[in-house]
Amino acid sequence: MSQEHSIDIFLGLDVGKSEHHACALDRDGNKVFDKPLPQLESDLASVFHQLQERGSVLVVVDQPNTIGALPIAVARACGCEVGYLPGLAMRKAADLYPGRAKTDKRDAFIIADTARTMPHTLRAVDRNNEVLSALKMLSGFDDDIARDCTRTVNRLRSILTQICPSLERVFAGSTLTRTPILDMLIHYKGPQGLKRAGYQRVLNWMIKHTRKDPTPLVDEIFAALKAQTVIVPGSDAAELVIPQLAANIKALKEQRDTITEQVERMLDDFPLCEVLMSMPGVGIKTAAQILLAIGDG
After folding, report:
1. Which is higher by pLDDT, 64 or 181?
2. What domains sit in the chain, N to C, each tagged with a CATH number?
3. pTM exceeds 0.85
């Protein structure tokens, strides 16, 4: 933060889900405000305007995202400067103050006093906050979907291993998550459905649904089916579950593709993105994660 010398009031917010604790100090360290503050725009704006009657105000939070996003947005709308105190700097600063009890009131005072006396410890809140916030939300959502997809794929593998291990081995690695394979499992449901359809019908169906010659893969599938003559208990129920799991995996993959397209459009706003993506091994999602880590400079 480079404007600390023009600040008259330093407002520290120990942010919470429904309520923050606010502590405001003047340049001399005198408390001019020290109360809980509801997580409501009207209450936040009222306190910010009240403090602005004493001069320029710097609002400092300990968490600029999620529960700290509203105070920052309201502070900016009111014309206040904003910043945040990183967790490590907060913990080091806390060691300089008497007492060990961790209370909202104490933390808010430490945030405000650290902003007043050690402004070099503060970090700017990203100027292009809208795009970075959107990137953060989409990246978090993509991470959730990726975990859901991995969990669903593992469940599908587990069922195939239970009822027909040789068929599961045909779908090694990423083969199981390829769209033609998922579509085949949705259509034929599982080992018994494939056997009933027969080699030629399955081959003809695969030819219509894939660009590559599916003959080697279909040969492997039916060789695996031929290797097992017994029907494992639970196979009928498995053929009800398999197409649903395959459909879920396909839908999750499509969601991730949509998110990738949205992230790519957002990254067009960052000149640095072209530099990042020119590096070997850095794609859209990795570039987004790097930008989220370093901010907008």
Report:
1. 181
2. 4-125 (3.30.420.40), 131-294 (1.10.287)
3. no
